[in-house]
Design a protein that fits this description.
The complex is a heterodimer. Chain A is mostly helical. Chain A contains 27 helices and no strands. The chains are: A mainly alpha, B alpha+beta. Chain A: It comes from Pygocentrus nattereri.
């Protein structure tokens, strides 16, 4: 095993460089500027035009020749007089001040430093462990030297931290999409501050006990990283609330993995929201549980659009109350769907295709389908003379067959035409 | 070595045509195409991760009494290059749109990918003509000249015959021919002008109002009628207004029920991709197929002659 001595020295100097005021520095480096300055301290004459450039030049020199400097340090400490030492340390101190007015400060401090007792300055200097380049260090010492990590203090991405931080590493291994998370405000710094063993692991175990599948954990945390900052008692209380409402444990797990923000809602809010659905839909408890389990998203989002959608179905579309209930239990997604799209589809299906309400209520998936798809297929069937949606008609096309079949099967089974013909027809629209 | 995604992206370079369905904004078409292509490009496997050397401190086996410590160097893939950390490799693809089609109209819409956008620009600087099929209906006038607008006026159309309609169309075409000669900036008494006019190559040289270079009636079945139009510098609004004015000229009113672009420069209806085919698998063959056409565009600026002569 071999650790280069120069490496160790560089490491040490890097460590020492952190505390500049107490670092002893040599008064005799090779460098014109520093020489000049030294003279100016001793003689008490300083030229303001020369001084401002000095600190940077001095610092650069320091960084470049750390090996040499430590060599001189070593000899200096043994031989130099206390007076010379103080003036050099003062020099060092003033290096870190601003250039402006430096000459005056330097002057003052140089004159003050004369009055400082020599013994005291010596003690100060001795307190600093200053290793010599020739000093033998044991292998174990050398191996224990840790390099301070070069993490940027400010960054725009978590990429810089991911190799250093245990939490981030584990999260990536879980399948959390950090590139998505870092785009959200405050999430990045929250994740960096988390400790894996203390913060993340208990919540992961909690989710796993709940029944969330392993493959879902990454997706869940990508959607809702804030579950990692929620307290465990709260999470437990919310789960037990859901269970007290007779949601089975499987359905709770499914709900949590489908709607990750569910457990961030307080019990009171959850209760209010369940109450809202009960009141608006007027469903039985079992059916409501079924609807909520299939679309837990509706519990987390805003309730105003849901209310609005229900009004649209009732007043604008003219569905009866029980028809709406039937539609919602069959396709819960209609609760959160876009009002404008639904109106467009319903308008076409009801007014252009002439399908009555009862048929739409029987197959509400048609409201979920794409408008372009419905229109193209209807116009194609109409062009072929096959657009019969009345179940009493001999060659009747059910809404299900119209909407849910893929293009090839639709052409071959419903339209009785080839796919090419259908495409050619699409280009005449 | 380029990654597979970069190689795929290099293939996506050129022009192709899509068929825009009516009722869809052109921007939505463009964004759909872009997101489909991005999905395809980003789904290809990422570049191999860099390797980082980690020094791990290990006590040398069971003989810890000797207090020997060993540092072992291991090479592990850097986590900073993990696809979950870096995110998708490409965030945008340059997709340019040729002559626009508004939401009401449908038809061939030319899209340019990557460096094809430059070709797209030079294509439109060469004043290519576009062909449209317009369907109209007599008997009603609306505020936006379409059949779905607010009705302003209702009229009778019993007196309109195909003969009268064609007379009006000929008049419109004559006026446009005159405008074309003015804007093409050639001396009317020169041999050059004669040669150009014989070949049908007269084109407006720079900015000009919309000019119809061809107009005829395809089908007359009152109240419905269909026109075929070739034109330059047009907008779909202008074409709908044209139908309205034809209606007024015939002492009745007309609205437009359909505007359909059947050709845009060299791009014909047969090459256009319908909206089920706006995926990378279908776009790449279309681009490569049309690349020959594109090279001929860049070498011969007068490539559109054969399409314009009817």
């Amino acid at each position: 095993m071999f650790v280069c001595r120069r490496c160790v020295r560089v490491l040490r100097s890097a460590l020492l460089y952190v505390q500049p005021p107490v670092t002893p520095a040599s008064p005799l480096p090779a460098g014109g500027a520093v020489d000049l300055r030294y003279r100016s301290v001793t003689t008490g004459h300083s030229s303001a035009s020369l001084l401002p450039r000095m600190p940077s030049g001095r610092r650069r020199e320091r960084r470049e020749s750390c090996g040499i400097r430590y060599l001189t340090d070593h000899t200096e400490q043994k031989s130099a007089s206390p007076h010379g030492q103080t003036s050099s340390s003062v020099l060092q101190q003033s290096n870190h001040k601003t250039a402006q007015g430096e000459a005056f400060k330097l002057h003052r401090e140089a004159s003050r430093s004369v009055s400082v007792p020599a013994a005291q300055t010596l003690i100060d200097l001795d307190a600093v462990p200053c290793p010599s380049p020739f000093e033998e260090i044991s292998e174990e010492d050398a191996i224990q030297i840790t390099v301070p990590s070069d993490l940027p203090p400010v960054t725009f991405t978590l990429r810089d931290y991911v190799d250093k931080s245990e939490t981030l590493r584990r999260l990536v291994e879980l399948g959390v999409n950090l590139s998505k998370l870092e785009q959200r405000p405050n999430v990045g710094s929250m994740l960096v501050r988390l400790d894996f063993q203390a913060d993340v692991a208990p919540r992961l175990f909690f989710l796993k006990d709940l029944g969330v599948e392993d493959s879902q954990l990454g997706l869940l945390l990508t959607k809702n990283p804030f579950i990692l900052t929620e307290s465990l008692e709260n999470l437990q209380a919310r789960v037990s609330y859901l269970k007290s409402k007779k949601f089975s444990s499987e359905s709770v797990a499914a709900m949590v993995s489908k709607a990750p923000y569910l457990l961030n809602f307080s019990i009171k809010r959850l209760d209010n929201r369940l109450g809202f659905f009960q009141e608006q839909l007027g469903l039985s408890a079992q059916k409501l549980r079924d609807v909520v389990t299939r679309l837990p998203r509706s519990l987390c989002g805003s309730l105003e659009p849901i209310k609005e959608n229900l009004k649209v179905y009732e007043l604008e579309f003219g569905f009866r109350k029980n028809e709406i209930q039937h539609i919602v239990t069959k396709v819960p997604k209609v609760l959160t769907a876009n009002k404008r799209k639904m109106t467009q589809v319903f308008d076409f299906v009801h007014n252009v295709m002439g399908v009555p309400h009862s048929l739409i209520a029987n197959f509400p998936q048609v409201l979920n389908a794409k408008f372009l798809r419905i229109r193209e297929r209807h116009l194609f069937l109409e062009y072929l003379g096959r657009a019969h949606y009345d179940p009493a008609h001999p060659n009747y096309v059910s809404l299900e067959r119209l909407v849910s079949l893929p293009d090839e099967t639709f052409c071959s089974e419903v339209a009785l035409a080839s796919l090419d013909d259908f495409e050619r027809f699409q280009k005449t629209l | 070595m380029a990654t597979q995604a970069a190689r795929l992206l290099r293939k996506l370079d050129g022009l192709f045509a899509v068929y825009k369905p009516p009722g869809v904004h052109w921007k939505l078409v463009r964004d759909t195409v872009e997101s489909n292509l991005l999905r395809a490009v980003n789904s290809s496997p990422p570049a191999a991760p860099r390797f980082q050397v980690h020094f791990q401190l290990l006590s040398s086996g069971e003989s810890s009494s000797s207090r020997e410590l060993t540092v072992t160097a291991t090479r592990l893939p850097a986590l900073a290059d993990h696809p979950l950390v870096t995110g998708p490799q490409f965030h945008k693809i340059r997709v340019g749109v040729g002559h626009r089609l508004d939401a009401f109209s449908s038809g061939v819409l030319v899209l340019g990918l990557g460096n094809g956008n430059t070709a797209l620009e030079s294509l439109y600087r060469s004043h290519v003509t576009r062909a449209y099929t317009l369907e109209g209906e007599f008997g009603m006038a609306t505020d936006d000249f379409t059949h779905s607008g607010r009705v302003i006026e209702r009229t009778t159309y019993g007196h309109v015959t195909q003969d009268k309609l064609e007379r009006v169309l000929a008049m419109v075409q004559g006026a446009n021919q005159k405008a074309l000669i003015t804007y093409s900036r050639v001396n009317l008494h020169s041999q050059e002008a004669y040669d150009l006019a014989v070949k049908g190559m007269l084109r407006p040289q720079d900015k000009s109002p919309p000019i119809l270079t061809g107009l005829r009636c395809l089908c007359f079945d009152p109240p419905h009628f269909t026109l075929e139009v070739q034109c330059v510098n047009e907008t779909q609004w202008y074409l709908r207004k044209l139908l309205h004015e034809v209606g007024l000229e015939l002492r009745t009113t007309a609205v437009c029920t359909k505007v359909r672009r059947t050709r845009d420069g060299p791009f014909k209806m047969e090459d256009a991709l319908t909206h089920n085919h706006w995926t990378a698998d279908d776009i790449i063959p279309a681009v490569t197929h049309l690349r020959d056409c594109y090279t001929s565009v860049s070498s011969h600026p007068s490539f559109s002659i054969k399409h314009n002569t009817m």
